[in-house]
């Protein structure tokens, strides 16, 4: 991908497109989760598709809580997790709902897909 005639690395293109501060360093990972042995211990990994479905910085509180309590690295999340949590954050902000992660996990179940990525699926208890 080129911007103004210059060929940029993929991470730079994402930083420019999504207006990510230069203070935040990002490393894009493929669709497949990267083995932990190959990951740097001082970095958090996201995929480009997570940005495409609405991930933005600074991270909303619900997303930070999700990472903290589940201990699931962002690179192992299906984009629907980002979409659901970002959507809930927007609704929370617009309508002053004061949503907690507990309320979201009450409605959604965290499941691991066959591709070893975690996603959220809605369940209605009877």
Question: Can you lay out the helices and strands and say which pair or pack?
Answer:
Blueprint: E1 2-3, E2 6-7, H1 10-17, E3 28-29, E4 46-47, H2 48-52, H3 61-70, H4 79-95, H5 101-107, E5 108-112, E6 118-122
Parallel strand pairs: 3-4
Antiparallel strand pairs: 1-2, 5-6
Describe the protein's architecture and organization.
There is one protein chain. The chain has one domain (2-122). The chain starts with a strand and ends with a strand. Mean pLDDT is 79; it is low at 1-6. It has five helices and six strands. The strands form three sheets. Strands 1-2 form a two-stranded antiparallel sheet. It is α+β, with helices and mostly antiparallel strands and 126 residues long.
* Beta-strand content estimate: 5-15%
Order of adjacent strands in the largest pleated sheet: 1-2
Number of domains: 1
Low-confidence stretches: 1-6
Number of helices, counting only DSSP H or I runs of 4 residues or more: 5
What is the total tally of β strands? 6
Helix content: 25-40%
Rg over CA atoms: 16 Å
Key descriptive features of the protein:
single chain; 126 residues; alpha+beta; two-stranded antiparallel ribbon; 14% strand; disordered N terminus
Short description:
This protein is an alpha+beta fold. Helix content is 37%, strand content 14%.
């Amino acid at each position: 991908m080129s911007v103004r005639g210059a060929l940029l690395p993929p991470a730079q293109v994402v930083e420019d497109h999504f207006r990510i501060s230069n203070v935040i360093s990002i490393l894009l990972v493929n669709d497949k989760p990267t083995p932990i042995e190959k990951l740097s211990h001082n970095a958090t990994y996201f995929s480009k598709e997570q940005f495409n479905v609405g991930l933005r910085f600074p991270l909303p509180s619900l997303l930070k809580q999700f990472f903290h309590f589940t201990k699931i690295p962002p690179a192992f999340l299906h984009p629907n997790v980002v979409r659901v949590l970002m959507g809930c954050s927007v609704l929370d902000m617009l309508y002053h709902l004061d949503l907690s992660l507990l309320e979201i996990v009450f409605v959604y179940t965290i499941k691991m897909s066959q591709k070893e990525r975690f996603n959220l699926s809605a369940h209605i208890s009877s």
